[in-house]
Specification:
With 162 residues, the chain is α+β, with helices and mostly antiparallel strands. Helices cover 18% and strands 51% of the residues. The protein has helices spanning 2-16, 103-116, and strands at residues 21-25, 31-38, 42-49, 52-59, 78-87, 90-99, 120-126, 131-137, 140-149, 152-161. A ten-stranded antiparallel β-sheet has the order 1-2-3-4-5-6-10-9-8-7, with helices on both faces. The two termini are 19 Å apart. The model is unreliable at 1-17 (pLDDT under 50).
Amino acid sequence: MRKVLMVVTATLALAACGGEKTVYSDAEGNEVKVVREGDGETSEIEITSADGSATVNIDGAGGNAKLPLGLSVYPGAKVVSSMTSNSNGKTGGMVVMESSANRDTVIAWYRKALEGKGFRIESEITTQELKAISGTGDGGSFSLQVAPAETGSSITLIAGEG
């Protein structure tokens, strides 16, 4: 748990500032090396420790939205931001989008697309403000949340291998 907190703290610290190579260590001498490159809007953060390595790509402008497991951005949606990661060969990603479509239309489209790729919907939540589905498929899992926005819906899709 301590190593996880060190990695998260290091990532957030470098994401907030200009970034460079930094080495963090705990009381037992465990080291985590964090290297950040980018201009603030688009960054690549590489995290390396004795347990392995991970690379996180952040695109605040949303121009390079890439999702694992063959998942797609909702048709016609504007990508607000995206993040991808690769940790020891397993990929994950998150895309935040805006669409003029209502939340039921977005959920129905993703349900059909996900089930068509062999995913199982294992949970569904509906509140006044949010509709969400999540599930698993061969080699990965996903979580989709859709909430009302000024001109339609705000969509957050998270997916990963493993």
